[in-house]
Amino acid sequence: MSAYEDLMTFQRETGALGQIAGRLGWDQETTMPRGAGDQRAEEMAAMEGVLHARRTDPRVGEWLAAIDPATLDEVGRAQIREITRSFERAGKVPAKLAADLARLTSRAHRIWAEARADDDVAAFAPVLAEVVALKREEAAALAAGDDLYDAMLDDYEPGATAAQLTAMFGALRPRLVALRAAILERPAPKALEGSFDEAAQMKLSRLLAKTFGYDMARGRVDKAVHPFSSGSGDDVRITTRTNPLDPFNCAYSTIHEVGHACYEQAVRPDFRFTPLGQGVSMGVHESQSRIYENQLGRSRAFCGWLFERMTESFGDLGLDGADGFYAAVNRVQNGYIRTEADEVQYNLHVLLRFDLEQALISGDLGVGDLEAAWNDRFLSDFGFAVDRPSNGVLQDVHWSAGLFGYFPTYSLGNVYAGCLLKALSAAVPDLDAALARGETSGATGWLRDNVQQHGGLLAPRAVIARACGGSEPTEAPLLDYLEGKFGALYGL
């Protein structure tokens, strides 16, 4: 066998083991017995040790040295590019540090979940300080003298820098703040009220998953505290959550995670277990979940179809028909929770976290001062005070899992989604008519063909630019979409 064939055989075995490790994480969130936390931490640390050893195996370097990329096709060159990147990054992180991080974050996640339930920041702060310290140690090894936060960001959005994102988000903020202020001066539409059976919500969530093209033969829908998608290829699982007073939370959490899952299910099968066999970045991933959830799922056209399905499931909703339902779905209102925020305010929640975690990693903000900094920033940005930690600094899972650098990809995904909607609308002129019938295949098929099937073949910005006819992604289409949609809804 050639060096390339040997390398890819080894890589596919590593990829398969990585999927098994991911399944341990899925199980921890869904069905693992509560008392199994310490054992699971050791299991995940052991798996990470095995994976780290394979990622840094000297044979990988030997195979790479023996391969001439000029002899390979586009796919082969992309595989070498990504394997080289992974090998070089993994080689900078000591094996003990990688295992220690896996063990610590598994334990920290359990402590966070309990602290969140108890609104007890003090119970979480010590382990968070440990996570921050180890992540800084890892970032220092990866950065080799460069910016620590950029090194972390590269795990989620290769090629992006904090300076680039700060500039983009700086352009987003003024128009978002102005739009939010104008909307909140207008009368709010009627909200959905009542109690909604949680079993019926889960039944509807499975219907929505299928409606948006999620292949249930290769996936499943479960419940978790924090909804997520896990896996790739033929085993892609999602979770959602229910609230008897808010069925929209379940419905749109499901559609959001289906966007992630459909991306993974759509990647070319011949990429399976290789670096190209999954979404290219979290920003591009988020573009899929957000366009499914918002530009498609919260559109006037689709809301008409969903109104009928929810009426069938729950009876009279107490709203003024489909138009009242559409207004309720897109109601802009004050709230604490990022994942429940409306489209106008969502990015403001993300920017708060982006700034705070940069300060944590730089050392400008200590963990002991994090809650006060969060509360001060929230009051400044949103105009009202955080009432309890579970609605503030304890609400997100990311920091317990060591996912520093992840948060900004949410807003970057929104920017990408705005660009994709503009191209999609031009390519699928009967989009609204189809969505009004509950037919999403025109939109999801376009996204599959132009974004999802490529997996990691193209760089993140390149896959978006190609899907958009060569136009480089900017924040302008997203802002134009938001001002147009909410300007019409609120009579601005």
Write the layout of secondary structure elements.
Blueprint: H1 3-30, H2 37-55, H3 58-66, H4 74-92, H5 95-118, H6 121-143, H7 148-153, H8 162-184, H9 198-211, E1 221-223, E2 229-232, E3 235-240, H10 247-266, H11 282-296, H12 300-314, H13 321-329, H14 343-362, H15 370-382, H16 408-427, H17 431-436, H18 441-450, H19 460-467, H20 476-490
Helix pairs in contact: 1-2, 1-3, 2-5, 5-6, 8-14, 8-20, 9-10, 10-11, 11-16, 12-13, 14-15, 14-16, 16-20
The sequence of SSEs as H and E is HHHHHHHHHEEEHHHHHHHHHHH
CATH topology of the largest domain: Neurolysin, domain 3
Poorly predicted regions: none
The structure class reads mainly alpha
The average pLDDT is 95
Number of strand elements: 3
* Domains, number: 2
Read across the widest sheet, the strand sequence of neighbours is 1-3-2
* CATH architecture annotation of the largest domain: Orthogonal Bundle
Q: Can you summarize the main beta sheet?
A: 3 strands, mixed
Summed up, the helix count is 20
Q: What gross morphology would you assign?
A: globular
How much of the sequence is in beta strands? under 5%
